[in-house]
Design brief:
Length: about 500
């Protein structure tokens, strides 16, 4: 048994938790199954790995550049608060799980392994389950496994005496959540990317699906009041005079970040920035602020280059896996991939709107003297809200791209403060804090805590029902959407014409 655990541990550490190599493995396997010559397999694999590494440089650059700025707000004003960020959340579980529950963090990797198998099985039998998405972002799986491990132990303490039963129950719930959540993003991703052939496997899958639907119902052509009008997306708006410079994403991102994050850096002040090691002695504060803010546009451009580099290889190669191993399957990838599609300015506007929502929510917590205070983490405020901005703009235009990420920011802070304080994670300084884990998983936890195993059964039944409902709402197009997107568009166009 130990040898299998050692093999899994090696695979999980070096491939599953390294998204570039996981994507490379998928591309290589797909091209092998397609019978491609060795040089095409090698070239496609290398290109996919390099493309994902480029994306990682952009994503890590954004996080590393701005996370200290946000955390600095808490330090600067001596706020004893937790940070909503997946890495802080994982660290909180590592630090507190043995002290609170008497369990080791090592079980988290076993949970991940079993949950991944559950996801594969649900997709393998997609004709029955109607679940088509394979969750491939291993680093996200580790973060979610850690948080789910804590939440489920808190909600169902009876499982603590049965290690095997506990891990199986957790894996069924988590693996089903992965399959259902990523499956919900297939339609939004296909429509935004015009059939690129991937979906999202990240921390805001239910959030993306809900906000995409709301954008259409409240702001788009699915609203009866707006049916006759053409929805004006951000990219359709031509700004007059000097405002036209904001039509260029690089310029607009740079200026908007200079205004918003420049103000935060000024609030932090030279003394704090110097003491914290961000600003060198004698360095110009003005040019430090400008450079820090302009790096947002730099890293965003790098990220988008990475997306363009590897998505084509992944989409082409995955047909081999879908045809031979997992019929009808769609790869679930990092949410940053969507930033290479849709309106570029939607990324910046969604991020800023979500950030404003988070700040206002934090102010409300302070005024209400909440026992749990929150500090913004860059990953939730950017990845969730910028992504929601892209999807909302596609379906509902500019208003949707501003209002829905703003509401998302409120949900992230209030939801995280509630669940992290209730289950005890706040005491260890962090919580995952992204949309699904601030909204959906608190609901799961409440149901399980107060209804016990009946609540667990209810949550699992609802999760299994969601793709069945999706399928029944569009029986003709449900699988066609991923198998032949051009045929799917023709089907939809024909139905619209018939109406």
């Amino acid at each position: 048994m130990n040898i299998f655990l050692d093999i899994w541990s090696y695979f999980a550490t070096n491939i599953l938790q390294q998204p570039a190599f996981m994507i490379g493995l998928i591309v290589m396997l797909g091209y092998i199954l397609l019978g491609k010559p060795w040089y095409d397999i090698l070239g496609g694999t290398v290109k996919a790995i390099v493309g994902y590494l480029i994306l990682t440089v952009g994503s890590s650059g954004l996080t590393n550049n701005f996370r200290p700025v946000l955390v600095g707000l808490g330090e600067r004003f001596n706020m004893d608060a937790m940070v909503i960020d997946p890495y802080f959340g994982q660290n909180a579980v590592t630090a507190g799980v043995e002290e609170v529950f008497g369990k080791g963090f090592g079980d988290v990797m076993i949970l991940l392994f079993i949950a991944f198998i559950v996801n594969i099985l649900l997709v393998r039998f997609s004709k029955l389950t109607k679940m088509r998405a394979l969750f491939t972002t291993g680093h996200v799986q580790v973060q979610q496994s850690a948080t789910a491990y804590w939440l489920i132990m808190f909600a169902l303490p009876g499982l603590l005496t049965n290690r095997v039963g506990m891990l199986v129950v957790m894996a069924v719930l988590l693996g089903t959540y992965w399959a259902v959540g990523s499956n919900l993003t297939i339609k939004p991703c296909q429509e935004v990317t015009d059939g690129a052939g991937f979906c999202l496997a990240h921390q805001q899958m239910f959030g993306v699906a809900l906000n995409y639907w709301l954008a259409g119902k409240l702001f788009g052509n699915e609203n009866k009041k707006h049916k006759a009008k053409k929805v004006k997306r951000i990219e359709d708006i031509e700004l007059p005079g000097f405002m036209s410079m904001f039509n260029d994403n690089m310029v607009s991102a740079s200026i908007l970040m200079l205004i918003f994050f420049g103000a935060i850096l000024c609030v932090l002040g030279r003394d704090y920035l110097t003491e914290a090691g961000f600003l060198a002695e004698g360095q110009s504060m003005v040019f430090y602020v400008i450079q820090t803010c302009l790096y947002f546009a730099v890293y965003l451009a790098i990220l988008q280059l990475g997306v363009r580099t590897f998505v084509a290889e992944l989409s082409a190669s995955f047909h081999g896996i879908a045809d031979k191993i997992l019929p009808g399957a769609v790869p679930g990838v990092d949410c940053a991939v969507i930033f290479g599609f849709g309106a570029s300015n939607a990324v910046t506007l969604g991020f800023i709107a979500g950030f404003v929502g988070q700040i206002l929510a934090i102010v409300a917590l302070v005024l209400l003297k909440s026992p749990v205070l929150v500090i913004c983490g860059f990953v939730p405020v950017f990845s969730d809200n910028a992504g929601i901005g892209v999807f909302a703009n596609e379906k509902g235009g500019l208003k949707a791209a501003l209002i829905l990420p703003f509401i998302s920011g409120l949900c992230q802070v209030f939801g995280s403060a509630f669940i992290a304080g209730w289950v005890g994670m706040a005491a260890y300084g962090g919580y995952l804090g992204m949309w699904d884990w601030a909204v959906v998983w608190p609901v799961f936890t409440v149901a399980m805590k107060f209804l016990s195993y009946g609540g667990l059964a209810l949550v699992v039944v609802i999760l299994f029902a969601i793709p069945q409902i999706q399928y029944r709402m569009d029986k003709e197009g449900y699988f066609l959407m991923t198998e032949d997107y051009e045929a799917y568009k023709e089907l939809k166009a024909g139905k619209v014409t018939a109406k």
